[in-house]
Amino acid sequence: MSYFDISGATFDENLRKLETSDPAHADVFNALLGQLINNDVALKEAVTKFAASKNEQALFLLNLHKDGKKYGVHFDNYDVTPSSNGTRLFDAVGMAAAPSTNTVRAVNDFDGKGCFAYLEVNGSVDENGEFQVQYIKDIDNEFSRTKYDTWCLYLTQYVYRKFDSNGEDTVISDTRHSAEWLPEGGAIRPDGTIRPFVAIAKYMSGDNADGVASSISGVSPKNYSFQSSLTKFRAKGTQYCAETSQDSERMTRLMEIAFATRNSQSVMAGCNWWWTQTPATVQENDVERIIISKSAAKELVVGGTVSIGNASSLTSDSKPETDRGNTGLNAKANRVRITKIEDYDDNSSAVYVDNGGQKFSTASTTVSGVTCPTMLSTMPWNTGGCDDVLGSCGSPTSNASGKEPYILFGVEMSSGFWEPKGNTVMKIENHVMRPYICYDCTKITTAGATTEDWIALGYVIPDNKGSWKYISKLGYSADDPEVRYPVEVNASSSNGYADGCYTEDLEKAGDGQREVLGSGALGYGSLVGRRDAALDYGLGDGWWRYAARLSACGRCGRRAAA
Description:
alpha+beta
């Protein structure tokens, strides 16, 4: 007598129904009985796991999605075919993906598959750089997006890359199929061993009730530079820094493979055409709204973030200062959510905001005899704007408007901020700009790449002479495969990577360092997407349009152990 093999048992809810036409043969019955037995074994394992640690529970749940498949995309080199569109490879062939909204769940064949699958969890990074799960969404009643740091937890990606004269293949899997498949950078521990999962902060960082930098829903992200983010996040623990190049690269891979394009804005535009500033057309007292022209109101989105106030200073030509960093412009309502927009009369609309019940006047004020009307200014979105999106990817009401953030496999991004990388800077030496990376955030200082802990990449950034140019090629270093920044800028807003890169005139620049800024601020339009790079600001530059994301992967190894 032989026995059913229960080694490596997995649960499968799709059980075949026996038909009257099936032959009465052991092979027919054994297939069904074997899966039923495997289901029992898998469920027993699940019960055991759920009596174990939260990390083991989370890994068990993620492993339910593990499929060992290879999901890939091929992109031609720009000089072969400038198109941004790619060709699906391996198990991605025949799959389709589209972004959702709050009211429409679009088809996304990658949802729940392998390393595209994720759990929302509360958790933290311990002093050794290891992520510790606290609560799991839909499992633990204590889970909260507003009380505790919220992360998206994914199985570790293994990445296969091939470069040739025609183009580039990128393939990912939850399984290491051979030595050529490299673990993603954020999963490599400092000792070279490999973490089973990677956590990405779901939200931009805002302060919690205790003033601690947090990844939580419903707050205004704080403004950070490379230097100030390091200082603030380090107060949370030396194991934290701002989003790393590895974090950014792993999410961009998901975008490029799932949607088979390098032009991320063609799928989800993000918040980059959200630049309205408009005066009150009717003055009111003791209100929590502002009445503006209908044409201006049409540019707004319910759920979006605005500030309301009057200029408190004048420009050099004696006009009201309209820079959003002017404190007067947010004195009446500071980064508040639009709750409703309704017609006021034939020419105007009333825009209601949640100002916590604090009423204000929309009357004009004067500065040095100059009338300063009450202004509404659009601002980068507060966190949680995408919490009601029905799918794993998408924007609240429109993926194409350019006014809304989006979620990408659970992570909320492109909310209207420039975002500094926490472990990567650009260094100018003898008029040449080169990326530098530090793989251990505990060794990073606000001085940037000034110690031997920083590694210089083997490629240089083009000199754009103080202008924006569109990226046609990214650099690649076999030793640092996840640090990818522009090396060629011959594309346009509709081909190549369809994202911009800015550098100052390097021939005129002295030696120094620059922040690596990605994502893109409110008014940059087609220049900004998953690959854009603004490389002209110093390490301490932080403004109203800058914010940062916590990283759980700041302590990692350069390469995995053999």
